[in-house]
Amino acid sequence: MLFDPLTLNGLTLPNRICVPAMVTRLCGEDGFVNADITDRYMAFARGEAGLIVVEAMAVHRSKSGPLLRICGDEFKPGLSELARKMHAISPSKVAPQIIHFLKISRSGWRQKVSDLSIGDIKQIVREYAQAALRARECGFDAVELHMAHAYTLSSFLSRLNARRDDYGGSLENRLRAPLEVLAAVRAAVGRDFAVGIRFDADECIKGGYTVEESRAIALRLAQVGADWLSLSAGGKFEDAQAREGEPLYPYTGYSGERTMPGASYPDGANLYMAEGVKAYLRAHGVKTPVLATGKIGTPELAERVLREGHADLIGIARPILADPMWPKKTREGRFDKVIRCCYANVCKARDEHFQTVSCFLWPKGAKQAPQSDDSVAPVWPAEGASLSAAREHGRVVLHWNPATDNEAVYGYDVWREELGQWRRLSALPSGITQYHDAGAIPGISYAYRVQAYDFAGNRSEVSNIANLGA
Amino acid sequence: MLFDPLTLNGLTLPNRICVPAMVTRLCGEDGFVNADITDRYMAFARGEAGLIVVEAMAVHRSKSGPLLRICGDEFKPGLSELARKMHAISPSKVAPQIIHFLKISRSGWRQKVSDLSIGDIKQIVREYAQAALRARECGFDAVELHMAHAYTLSSFLSRLNARRDDYGGSLENRLRAPLEVLAAVRAAVGRDFAVGIRFDADECIKGGYTVEESRAIALRLAQVGADWLSLSAGGKFEDAQAREGEPLYPYTGYSGERTMPGASYPDGANLYMAEGVKAYLRAHGVKTPVLATGKIGTPELAERVLREGHADLIGIARPILADPMWPKKTREGRFDKVIRCCYANVCKARDEHFQTVSCFLWPKGAKQAPQSDDSVAPVWPAEGASLSAAREHGRVVLHWNPATDNEAVYGYDVWREELGQWRRLSALPSGITQYHDAGAIPGISYAYRVQAYDFAGNRSEVSNIANLGA
User: Fold this and answer.
1) In this structure, CATH architecture of domain B6-352
2) I need a labelling partner for B74 at 20 to 30 A (CA). Which of A58, B293, B355, B374 fits?
3) Do residues B21 and B44 lie in contact, with contact meaning Cβ atoms separated by under 8 Å?
4) Is the model's pLDDT at B264 over the cut of 90?
5) Which CATH superfamily is domain A388-468 in?
6) B173 contacts in A (CB within 8 Å)?
């Protein structure tokens, strides 16, 4: 089902894979599309996901760090050119994510939705509508309204919205500004343009809302005209970790960890949200597609989610950052050639430290994922991989021989077997030929194996299997 | 299945309901059992849960607020008397929860596991073993080792355990002190005494472990001899909210909210933990019973969890605080007579503010749940309940007439219907005859009803149904 088309308000996506909006920090403070941004999205376009959501761009002129902008007509040529170029090489549909955020200072002060006048709210509504219209005029296929994480519309939806007027207090009131935005966007872009919404299905903060309310939020957004509902989680200011001399940044606390669940989380850690939301929509007879995200890294898991009906679209962010060709390789039956995300969240850490976002697995210093059409796989030396595994000081320590390749060895996948199931533990960049498994316990027998890969994802033979008794 | 017996290492519980350890703050700083403590647990005993876990008692002499102690033989008479009295009136099995905690000061400083010498660790191991032996000598049926939340053994298990020696770093090392405690306890109490463990199945903090690791922790604890595994969540210092002049208290942050999910959470909010842990144990051929907790408030939900095999025991804390007769009334087919918890978490808030723990639904100032054998139900006045529902300022506002009762009206249950399903929204103490539903949205048709109840849980007729269009 992952490669079945899906139609959103007349817009047919060639498949069910979505690249959700991912911050890049590749853009300048001027907010214009530049060569690095273009390279990033052209790589995604070559991967042929059904829907590519271009990173959040500001609907207003508020000061910010590097951030794309769609707050004036001067940004349209660059954005139009990006859309044109992506369409020229790819069947992917492309939608910008548009965002409004409040002010924040290094002193720790931040503006809250309760500080906004009614005039301010009306202004935000207008800015969203104008930005959405610009998105359509630029040749994008759809637009996604950012109502997630720590940003303005999410803060209206939040259970911590402290307004005491018609824009806060009850769920209906918390929905008011987001729904006014949606209605104004719809009026601006017309009935025949797909408008999606990304919002938190679980705030993951103290006093925040959970699926109990987000399912009702989803229903209301769908009733008022959202064409798809993209579910995220957390990413809030309330639990962000303050860092000396830096403005408070969401995603630095626990709720940020829940936005991008890392290696310590189970696969599909946020799927309960899509299940809860979608079941509720369907019980109310609402058919709006639901997009699930959160550590869905394999076609098997993505397919299962679709087959079981828990979501209609699968957001795959970090794995497609690691290997932009994930969708195409998978469609062609070559998932075994995918460079696989290890959820080390170095991308997330770089963003938190205001650095350009790259992948831990990429060659050191690379701005983009490497490309290669090479078809020759790495090989182990004559004596083989000689993988060994031993318990040392409470860890299992693996050592193996380096592989070689006609181009270059790019990295190694490390696998562990338990109860007959092989599971990929991690990936390591070339040059590292040992791994410490800190999660193995006595009382279980494990087996390990490693495999080398090159830039094209060609895999070496599987190493010898190193067994470790209980 | 909820009323099927279950045998734990030779100890047969008459049913699958457990009252998990709940802080009461009823005890003095001297740590002895007093009349209020006795009243609290005698009420639970009359309710006839299969297993009653008596609130955490300290294995050591460290200074603390009001907290039971089992750290010396002088505490044995009081504890023995408590066990004897509970057994005299009830088939319930009774186990004390025993705890070690580290030092904390009002200045904000707190001792960490990384501050402990090897000698300190050995001392903790001895203290647990001695305390567990005392528990057996006092006539308790079992003992539960507290390895959850912000306390010493949980901090060893934590992914944030910062020790660099054999007691930290890897999962095996983080398990070392807890397993030494378990082994020493087992050696002290003998093979034929049931020893349970309560631990976090999800730390719910940044950098903490999730079910990915807790399932392995559970397996190892079971292999080394735990007779039941009671799953909790969160309750950590790392995200606790500092309050001026007070020592830092766990449960005040998001992770504490996850320990006792309140009204904004779905029912059974933590069940994914039991599902994940139990499936893993069984896949490894380990049959140790798993106890699930977290907003399991109805026999229907408890029964479903057991029937679907996701847990073997059901922890019901706040609902049994609200009505200690929950198990007995339910077994007798009189769940309709249960005073039902509304998860307002006033009990939790009182604990956070260092007040004695009572229930929001109890009569004002009551130290214990009221008792009554009355069988006459409250009645509505001649003109009926006259329940009305109207949307006002983004809320649905309900009003109704007060009921009367031969003894006293104790409170009202408020119900809402959506898609043909009636769901209890809240309960309100007598004297309040209006309710604001802040979670209703336009676009859905709802219906409402209320019902009055007395101290015995006798319910009035259902009120008229107030309908509210979309």
Assistant:
1) Alpha-Beta Barrel (3.20)
2) B355
3) no
4) yes
5) Immunoglobulins (2.60.40.10)
6) 393-394
